[in-house]
Design a protein that fits this description.
The protein is built from 20 helices and eleven strands. By secondary structure, it is an alpha/beta fold. Helix 7 (190-205) packs antiparallel against helix 8 and helix 10 packs antiparallel against helix 12 (320-333). The protein is globular, with a radius of gyration of 22 Å.
């Protein structure tokens, strides 16, 4: 079977780019060529180009991997997104990524692009742990390998913050305006977080540079949502059958997708609203809704699935007791939210249950369970503080926390950037306060939860129930 390329002729119905790809020029530089970007922002960009064509091609940057860059090149920068639901499957070939480059092999090209006036927007999806965020201070973690390297040698960066600072420094020196930095990772107030990290690294290098960025830069926050499982051989085989061509980069995803963006750009932007993106003044209400309802329930489901030997989210949701638990958690978490403009929160919860139950989406609980120390503070702990302050018992949050601790205790090779700290906590004998060692991990739990003896006892009670098999 032939490899997917610009010459492929499809026997089956497949949505393909309806604009002139040869005329498409770069306007966006994106860090993080993983599955989520390719099934989300690149799809929004595809719709924008179809609706209002312009110089908004994406140059995708892989910070570590060479394979994805080589696969894109072998397929004329094309790949497929297979949308799956109980109603059937549909295939789309995406062409809005016009080039992939590797920071490992193409550093000089990447640095040149950062100072290219054609690049108006730099977008990011590198996952929470790649930013070098200090969990205690909320600023730069100077012990993070990429942060330490970029502070020591700022003109030859290795991490995403280092590249952004070096790119902005070169623009300042050239008398250019900055590019807009648009974070699309699951960090609360992600634009403000990235702005702080950039300013701290710039300040360590040159206070004048930091002042210029603070005055002239733009870091809008955004909220993104689409369930995109890790690619599998089974999924690639399904795509090959639909396309009549092999696609090494094929992805499977759900029909639902959402993107809420603060409308604060330094220059023009693509017409992402053509695919339904919502531009707002404040993204926080939407972001909090997604983190506490979708992501919080997802984490609970993931740890429950891992402890019960259930591989996929859909497997957990097939157990009525666990499905009811997910809904109960969201019904509790929704009480900590302010009204969200244009969103019926009860309907949103119903949609989440339907999405989690989607029988065609193979979203592994193990994938969601990774990096818990980076995810739970905003998904579970922040809402718990507000719930307890309002007089709620936060019972399901205690259970979600206990499930994660039980998972950490049982998983020796836990996939988490604070792996060694978690392993040490897991090795402490349980005693009468089984969660104590985890509450002692610096910067992990908010002080309000550390000080709340009643809620910590509730977590311990849930841990005892899990260990006894009552949950």
């Amino acid at each position: 079977m032939e490899r997917l390329s610009a010459a492929t002729r499809f026997a089956n119905p497949v949505a393909t780019p309806d604009y002139d790809r040869k005329a498409l020029k770069p306007g966006i530089l994106h860090f993080g060529l993983g599955a989520f970007h390719r099934a989300h922002q690149a799809v929004y960009n595809e719709a924008a180009l179809s609706q209002n064509f312009g110089d908004w091609g994406i140059v995708g940057v892989s910070l570590r991997s060479l394979d994805i860059v080589r696969d894109l090149r072998a397929q004329d920068q094309l790949y497929s997104v297979i949308t799956r639901s109980g109603a059937g499957d549909s295939a789309q070939v995406v062409g809005s990524i016009i080039r992939g480059i590797s920071a490992v092999e193409d550093r000089d090209e990447l640095l040149a692009l950062l100072v290219d006036p054609a690049i108006k927007i730099v977008t990011i999806t590198v996952t929470e742990k790649a930013y070098g965020l200090d969990p205690v201070t909320g600023g730069l973690d100077r012990n993070h390998p990429a942060v330490a390297a970029d502070l020591a040698n700022p003109t030859a960066p290795t991490g995403v913050i280092g590249y952004i600072v070096e790119g902005l420094a070169r623009r300042q020196q050239a008398g250019m305006e900055p590019f807009t930095v648009l974070c699309c990772d699951n960090l609360p107030s992600n634009g403000r977080v990235v702005r702080r990290l950039v300013l701290e690294m710039a300040e360590a290098r040159d206070p004048a540079l930091a002042g210029w960025i603070a005055e002239h830069g733009a870091f809008p926050s955004s909220m993104v949502d689409r369930i995109v499982p890790a690619a599998t051989d089974e999924g690639r085989a399904r795509a090959a059958q639909m396309l009549g061509a092999e696609d090494a980069l094929s992805l499977e995803t759900e029909p639902f997708m959402q993107w809420v963006i603060e409308d604060h750009f330094l220059s023009d932007r693509p017409a992402w609203e053509a695919a339904g993106a919502l531009f707002v003044d404040e993204v926080e209400p939407y972001e909090k809704m997604k983190l506490r309802l979708l992501n919080g329930a997802h984490s609970m489901i993931a740890y429950l699935g891992q402890l019960k030997g259930l591989e996929y989210v859909r497997d957990v949701m097939a157990v009525a007791e666990y499905r009811d638990l997910a809904r109960r958690h969201m019904k509790s978490a929704v009480k900590t939210l302010d009204p969200v403009p244009g969103i019926d929160l009860n309907r949103y919860i119903d949609q989440l249950i339907e999405r989690f139950e989607n029988p065609t989406i193979a979203h592994r609980t193990k994938q969601i369970a990774m990096d818990g120390s980076q995810k739970l503070p905003q998904r579970i702990f922040a809402g718990t503080v507000e719930a307890l302050k309002a007089g709620d018992e936060a019972d399901t949050s205690a259970l979600a926390t206990a499930l994660w601790i039980a998972y950490a205790k049982r998983t020796l090779d836990i996939d988490d950037p604070r792996r060694e700290e978690l392993r040490k906590a897991a090795a402490v004998p349980a005693g009468d306060d089984a969660s104590a060692a985890f509450f002692a991990v610096p910067g992990l739990f908010p002080q309000a939860l550390i000080d709340n003896r009643a809620w910590r006892d509730r977590v311990n009670g849930k841990l005892a129930d899990i260990e006894a098999g009552r949950i």
